[in-house]
């Protein structure tokens, strides 16, 4: 571990790529190393994905006449999705969900815990870290049930604690509920990533900052953040993608009431399975993929600009 | 240490793959064989959304403890070596439907498949299932059971006038009421409302006497088909309209407006019901528990509620009422006004039903039919009744068994003759969802006209403007 | 509830105090105590937030008559006996293990090979490829690709096999795994490999003897992450496996409901705990043994 942590310093002052191939792998052998993974991904990921793209251009359904003779409808599905208010509503909810629960909630809380615990040792740290991690590793079906029990209108623990008997949290505040739930589930990843990142910030730099009288806030801004910029981007990119695609909120609210918590992953499910419109579901999935792509490219641009500017 | 890690990874990989390979033993796809013919032992498979220790456990137990051994023995006596394998599921209906669709689409699947009657149309249109006689051969038409099953009940598993499966029961919807609460509100023990207004009057009297939830008529999307079957449709047929009639789907008609107005009166204007409950994920269960706890005055439910929910028998009811037979009354659902129901009826109901179909991909379709016929024989229903009484599709069995249960006799004698069925068409589930959304909007406080207009748009989008009757 | 707890100035309190001299002693003391109190309160809130939902999981399984409300249990172990009574429950946990460990092993092996090669050799378009796959993996694990996946697995004869499920799940998580591992390997100092090469080690030997041990925390992270993904997955095993004997716990858990959808709380609570313990235990084990670090960042 210490080797890794120590490595972070040099990594930031990375040299060019020509020196990378220290093991003498060569392109051919590298290809051999990559091939099995690519074959697996090609067969079980890319192939169904391409098929899904094709389905998105048909009126395919799982049952009924359109199952027997699906028709090629070209871009009709895309057109009707993009002119459907329900789609835009769902996209709007998704953006709020990703921004508030993922980018802001998980990242900030995860970073804050990592920052606060960076010098703490002993049981307090273990207890907090363990609980945060437990929320993350507990299977989604269990996690959602725990929250159903917590938020239940009649016998829920939260109502008992707050004295708000009869408040149906999942119905009155569906978006808030799934956002808080998602923060609870996903904070562990950011916490882990940032605690490694903080450990890798060169102590000497922190020390010099302190010597010149920098407060915590200044240390954070001037020393820590520039050092962990790469981690912040990794974190934000993965969190964004994962939050965009998470289906678990369905287990809490099923998208309801009245589609008030129908984020895109849920909207696709209700379109494709209970609604039966698999072709349309595939088309919306592709639109979602496109949005993810734009976001990812945006992050990479920021990353490039930032690293270009800092050197 | 280094080697160890690599070894651990390699070891778990091998072990897992080996375990995976073994785990597959004995569960080979039974329909893949194809070459078994008549010389070797034949394997037949049954898939139902029933599982020991979970959903429809009694049905699963009946399959495993009675159907399989009895059928295998009967076949062995005939000199045919048959093994019957039960592949239980036990999940949400939508997931189950997805799974059997995929099975059938890929040319696989069990020989006998359980399904909801309203799926028959879409499965038939997709080419996944075929009429029973096309699969099972001439023996199908000669089956003795058809004479015992009324046409209306047979219709539950039919499409375009052809039988696709055998229904496994019949059911009907009634109004349940709590006699204790009624007595306290000064209402009669033998209550029989003859119009919606009288139902509302009873609700008002209950509200006055302090009952928190006088009326529970399912609404909203969270309850799914329970909203349509135990709410909207029984009301709709009470106005004389039907969801599908003369090749037209119901649109934004006056009859539907009346139904939505009735919802509005209950949940918004007079607050005779719990509007939030309609949106809760487990709202229907909660309504069961509340009725059992004596908190609900009047509840529109199927006979399922009587036999499987408030049934006091040990381990049968999910919300048992020990004093069910004394406290719970039941009565027919009135039409909006006397004589305003479909066919000029004074009282109405809705029926649905699940059943079992033959898989056209079966390698042994004739034997599969024999098994299906065996599962629907009189003795099979009698064996099934040991674990709990249902209204069976067979008149001969009902005559013998139902006498012991006045409620089921009531449904069989008084409700089934006036009941109506949903259209077994592929578009139905989507139209049903649109109807649920309309009730949800009204219950949440939207104006009835808005909900009606949105519904009319939705249904036109599903089936096409030309197939909608907007009155 | 989410972002408010931790003010940065509160957080530095427990750190070694070697900072520049403060303006005055009194002010320093007040500030010190204030930040300490704030720190403790903030940590308490975080603790409560994460612990509250968990309370049900540790009390209800031991309660003779569990409800949705958390309460001091009426102690019993009878709920766990119900797991043994359910015909499929124990087998489903074993199936979950098979799927989880199988996918993990496959993914770690293929992922570290690929990540190492991608990290050390500049294959044209490697970054673009990696991001494209990362994005694709998000739709394929969803509902839209269900029909193609099912048809594919049927065609190659792996329907109703654990291997079919493992392959599909592995295909779904591999891009993310490679992405994370590559980041990790990028940060490993090259000097070890250089010296190993001087002693004549082959690239594969360098990978297994030098890189993998150094990347242990990253592999550990990926291993746990993969198992967590598989452990909770419902749709893929449900659709690809036919009999309840072969279904994993995530699928079986949904059968603990009655016809009306009412959860069997005794069975469900006990099973939830038993179902969650292996992944939590695995995290502890892996963490203790190999360290548990996520390392890396996007470089441009």
Automatic annotation (TrEMBL), chain B:
Keywords: Signal. The keyword Hydrolase does not apply. It comes from the Bacteria. It holds the Pfam family SBP_bac_1. This is Extracellular solute-binding protein. Residues 1-15 form the signal peptide.
């Amino acid at each position: 571990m210490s080797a890794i942590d120590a490595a972070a310093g040099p990594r930031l002052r990375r040299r060019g790529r020509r020196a990378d191939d220290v093991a003498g792998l060569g392109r051919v052998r590298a290809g051999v190393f990559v091939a099995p993974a690519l074959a697996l991904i090609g067969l079980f990921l890319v192939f169904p994905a391409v098929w899904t793209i094709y389905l998105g251009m048909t009126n395919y359904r799982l049952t009924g006449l359109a199952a027997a003779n699906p028709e090629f409808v070209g871009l009709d599905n895309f057109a009707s999705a993009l002119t459907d208010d329900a789609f835009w509503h769902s996209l709007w909810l998704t953006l709020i969900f990703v921004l508030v629960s993922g980018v802001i909630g998980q990242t900030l809380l995860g970073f804050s815990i990592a920052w606060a615990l960076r010098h703490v040792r002993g049981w307090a740290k273990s207890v907090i870290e363990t609980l945060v991690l437990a929320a993350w590793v507990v299977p989604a079906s269990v996690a959602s049930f725990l929250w159903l029990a917590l938020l239940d209108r009649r016998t829920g623990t939260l109502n008992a604690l707050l004295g708000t008997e009869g408040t149906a949290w999942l119905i009155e505040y569906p978006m808030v509920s799934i956002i808080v739930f998602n923060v609870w589930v996903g904070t562990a990843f950011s916490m882990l990533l940032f605690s490694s990142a903080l450990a890798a910030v060169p102590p000497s730099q922190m020390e010099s900052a302190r010597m010149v009288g920098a407060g915590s806030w200044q240390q954070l801004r001037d020393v820590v953040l520039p050092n962990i910029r790469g981690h912040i981007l990794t974190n934000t990119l993965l969190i964004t993608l994962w939050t965009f695609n998470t289906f678990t909120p369905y287990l809490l609210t099923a998208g309801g009431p009245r589609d008030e918590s129908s984020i895109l992953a849920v909207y696709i499910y209700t379109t494709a399975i209970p609604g039966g419109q698999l072709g349309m579901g595939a088309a919306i999935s592709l639109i979602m993929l496109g949005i993810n792509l734009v976001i990812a490219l945006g992050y990479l641009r920021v990353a490039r600009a930032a690293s270009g500017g800092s050197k | 240490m280094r080697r160890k890690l690599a070894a651990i990874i390699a070891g778990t990989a091998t072990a897992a793959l080996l375990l995976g390979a073994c785990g597959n033993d004995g569960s080979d796809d039974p329909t893949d064989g194809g070459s078994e013919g008549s010389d070797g032992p034949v394997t037949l498979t049954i898939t139902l959304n029933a599982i020991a220790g979970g959903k429809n456990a009694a049905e699963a137990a009946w399959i495993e403890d009675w159907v399989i051994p009895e059928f295998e023995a009967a076949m062995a006596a005939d000199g045919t070596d048959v093994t019957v394998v039960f592949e239980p599921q036990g999940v949400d209906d939508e997931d189950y439907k997805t799974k059997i669709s995929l099975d059938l689409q890929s040319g696989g699947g069990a020989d006998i498949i359980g399904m909801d009657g309203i799926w028959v149309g879409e499965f038939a249109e997709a080419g996944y299932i075929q009429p029973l006689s096309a699969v099972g051969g001439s023996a199908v038409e000669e089956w003795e059971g058809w004479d015992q099953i009324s046409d209306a009940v047979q219709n539950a598993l039919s499409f375009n006038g052809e039988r696709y499966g055998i229904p496994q029961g019949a059911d009907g919807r009634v109004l349940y009421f709590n006699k204790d609460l009624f007595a306290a509100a000064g209402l009669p023990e033998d209550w029989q409302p003859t119009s919606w207004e009288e139902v509302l009057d009873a609700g008002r009297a209950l509200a006055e006497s302090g009952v928190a939830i006088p009326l529970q008529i399912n609404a909203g999307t969270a309850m799914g088909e329970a909203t349509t079957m135990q709410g909207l449709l029984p009301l709709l047929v009470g106005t004389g309209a039907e969801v599908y009639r003369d090749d037209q789907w119901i649109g934004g008609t006056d009859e539907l407006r009346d139904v939505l107005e009735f919802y509005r009166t209950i949940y918004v204007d007079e607050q005779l019901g719990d509007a939030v409950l309609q949106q809760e994920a487990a709202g229907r269960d909660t309504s069961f528990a509340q009725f059992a706890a004596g908190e609900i005055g009047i509840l529109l439910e199927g006979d399922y509620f009587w036999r499987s929910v408030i049934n006091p028998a040990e381990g049968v009811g999910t919300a048992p009422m020990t004093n069910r037979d004394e406290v719970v009354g039941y009565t027919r659902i009135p039409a909006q006004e006397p004589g305003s129901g479909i066919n000029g009826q004074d009282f109405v109901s809705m029926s649905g039903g699940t059943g079992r179909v033959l898989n056209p991909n079966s390698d042994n379709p004739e034997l599969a039919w024999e098994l299906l016929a065996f599962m629907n024989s009189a003795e099979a229903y009698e064996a099934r009744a040991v674990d709990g009484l249902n209204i069976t599709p067979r008149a001969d069995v009902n005559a013998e068994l139902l006498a012991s249960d006045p409620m089921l006799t009531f449904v069989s004698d008084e409700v089934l003759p006036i009941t109506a069925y949903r259209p077994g068409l592929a578009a139905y589930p989507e139209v049903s969802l649109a109807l649920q959304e309309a009730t949800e909007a009204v219950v949440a406080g939207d104006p009835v006209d808005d909900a009606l207009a949105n519904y009319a748009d939705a249904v036109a989008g599903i089936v096409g403007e030309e197939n909608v009757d907007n009155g | 509830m989410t972002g408010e707890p931790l003010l940065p100035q509160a957080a530095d309190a427990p750190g070694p105090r070697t900072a520049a001299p403060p303006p005055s002693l009194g002010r320093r003391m007040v500030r010190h105590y204030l930040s300490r109190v704030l720190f403790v309160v903030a940590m308490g809130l975080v603790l409560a937030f994460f612990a509250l939902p968990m309370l049900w999981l540790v009390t209800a399984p031991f309660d003779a008559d569990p409800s949705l409300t958390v309460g001091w249990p009426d102690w019993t172990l009878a709920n766990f006996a119900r797991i043994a009574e359910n015909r499929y429950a124990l087998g489903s946990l074993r199936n979950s293990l098979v799927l989880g460990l199988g996918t993990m092993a496959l993914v770690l092996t293929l992922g570290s090979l690929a990540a190492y090669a991608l990290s050390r050799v500049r294959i044209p378009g490697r970054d673009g490829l990696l991001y494209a796959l990362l994005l694709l993996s998000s739709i394929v694990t969803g509902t839209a690709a269900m029909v193609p996946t099912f048809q594919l697995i049927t065609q190659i004869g792996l329907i109703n096999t654990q291997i079919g499920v493992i392959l599909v799940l592995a295909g779904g998580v591999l891009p993310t795994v490679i992405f994370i591992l590559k980041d990790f390997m990028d940060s490993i100092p090259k000097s070890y490999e250089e010296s190993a090469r001087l002693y004549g080690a082959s690239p594969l030997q360098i990978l297994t003897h030098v890189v993998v041990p150094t990347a242990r925390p990253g592999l550990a992270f990926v291993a746990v992450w993969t198992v967590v993904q598989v452990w909770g997955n419902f749709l893929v095993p449900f659709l690809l496996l036919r009999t309840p004997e072969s279904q994993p716990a995530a699928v079986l858990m949904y059968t603990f409901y009655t016809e009306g959808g009412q959860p069997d709380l005794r069975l469900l609570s006990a099973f939830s705990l038993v179902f969650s313990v292996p992944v939590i235990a695995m995290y502890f084990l892996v963490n203790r043994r190999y360290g548990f670090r996520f390392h890396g960042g996007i470089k441009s």
